[in-house]
Amino acid sequence: MDAFQRAVAEARRQLIHDEGHNVSVRELIRRAGFDDTRRASVARHLNPNQLWPKGHKVPPDIVRALAAVLPISESDLMKAAQVAAGYQARGDEQRDLGFEVARFLGDEEVPEEEKARLRARLLQLIAEDLQRSRGE
After folding, report:
1. Phi, psi dihedral angles at 35 (to 5 degrees)
2. To the nearest 10°, the Cα dihedral for 64, 69, 71, 75?
3. 73 and 124 belong to one structural domain
4. pLDDT of 37-63, one tens digit each?
């Protein structure tokens, strides 16, 4: 069970406690506004037995819809989804640029051309910085 699934499960338990009766995952999905055509894909994101070897990337519309019907804030559920996807969800802390670049370059969904542009730009910035530091 990843961070997103854990957050949804805890919020669902709270919802069940608040309402005094069981709220099935199917009912939760229905309340979130998903019809039968999307039910299976949403349920897959909530299934704790589903493996996500490359990180669990939950579509933002699913996060928003579930947050609207669960006793959890959208921002908390979004952070849990970010953690499940493998991103570092750190409040206002400064982001680690090296980590972000490595994550971007390792993302199979990013086109190789875009990765090549980033590599070229990084090399250009490093070269310019080296020239400046030698000139001082």
Report:
1. -85, -175
2. 10
3. no
4. 999 999 999 999 998 888 899 999 999
User: Can you list the alpha helix ranges (DSSP code H) found in the chain?
Assistant: 3-19, 25-31, 36-46, 60-69, 74-85, 97-106, 112-135
Return the HEC string of 54-88.
CCCCCCHHHHHHHHHHCCCCHHHHHHHHHHHHCCC
pLDDT on residue 8: 95
Residues 78 and 18 in one domain: yes
List of residues 6+ apart from 117 with CB closer than 8 A: none
**pTM beyond 0.70:** no
Can you give the residue range of the structural domain that contains 7? 3-85
Q: Residue 23: is it exposed, middle or buried by C-beta count within 10 angstroms (0-12/13-18/19+)?
A: middle
Is residue 92 in some structural domain? no
